[in-house]
Amino acid sequence: MGSRFQYAMTLHIIIFLQIAQLVTGQFKIIPPDNPVIGVIGKGVILPCQLEAKTTPERLFVQWIFTGKSQRIDVTTYDGKNKQNPISEDKAYQGRTNFFQTEFNKGNVSLHLKNVMLSDEGKYTCSIFLENWYDEVVVDLNVAAKGDETSIFLDGHVGQGIGLTCKSQGWFPEPEVVWLDSKGQTRKEKVITQRTKTSSGIFDVVTSMNLEPGSDKEVSCRIVNNLLNTACESRVLISGE
């Protein structure tokens, strides 16, 4: 009796494992290769791709945000609820979209509109099916390219000429470079202030003195290394 019971239990476990392997093999989430970069004020797509031969209609997808000190259930899609399948947290009200017409292709990515600085963090895409569950984490880095730079002449400073370059609206803290006519970094002393505003972005004011006999073509370049983009202004100081 005992051996028959053990045999039945062993057979049950084997069948259960085979079913689990079959279900597991049917579905797979493809993880993103790199962090996603979202530009403040614009939209961004948080990728989540389900690899499957067929995608069940009763799909349940949940996106969860984890920041420095909070966790938010951003939005969910419940395929069992035909009348109102989507629910959205108040903090993201009107800012998220699923690509529902592409669910049959396994695309459960999230379109996040009007990116804010507070959106930076980790987003977990969780997919629930009847006998299967998995999740993937998408890192969202937030960035902003500031306004065009402007160079102002401050007048004479000693025997030289003072120059100031300004720009607003950068994130993260940008790099500042003063260049000569050959595109080389200038040797003059530079004073730069990066001021963090109440919204968390940075305004930049940078100054230098152009000494007599120096290359009179001056460029101010402000660089966002995360976006790999820059703003630059150039002036040519003529005369003595």
UniProtKB/TrEMBL annotation:
GO cellular component, one term: external side of plasma membrane
Pfam name, any one: V-set
Entry annotated with the keyword Oxidoreductase: no
Signal peptide segment: 1-25
Gene Ontology MF, one: signaling receptor binding
InterPro entries per record: BTN3A2-like_Ig-C, Ig-like_dom, Ig-like_dom_sf, Ig-like_fold, Ig_sub, Ig_V-set, IgSF_BTN/MOG
Gene Ontology biological-process entries: regulation of cytokine production; regulation of leukocyte cell-cell adhesion; regulation of T cell activation; T cell activation; T cell receptor signaling pathway
UniProt cross-references to SMART domains, sorted A to Z: IG, IGv
Domain Ig-like: 41-127, 158-238
Record keywords, A-Z: Disulfide bond, Glycoprotein, Immunoglobulin domain, Membrane, Signal, Transmembrane, Transmembrane helix
Keyword Glycoprotein annotated: yes
Principal location listed in the UniProt entry: membrane
Subcellular localization(s) per the UniProt record: Membrane
Family in the record: Belongs to the SKINT family.
Protein name from the UniProt record: Ig-like domain-containing protein
Organism phylogeny: Eukaryota, Metazoa, Chordata, Craniata, Vertebrata
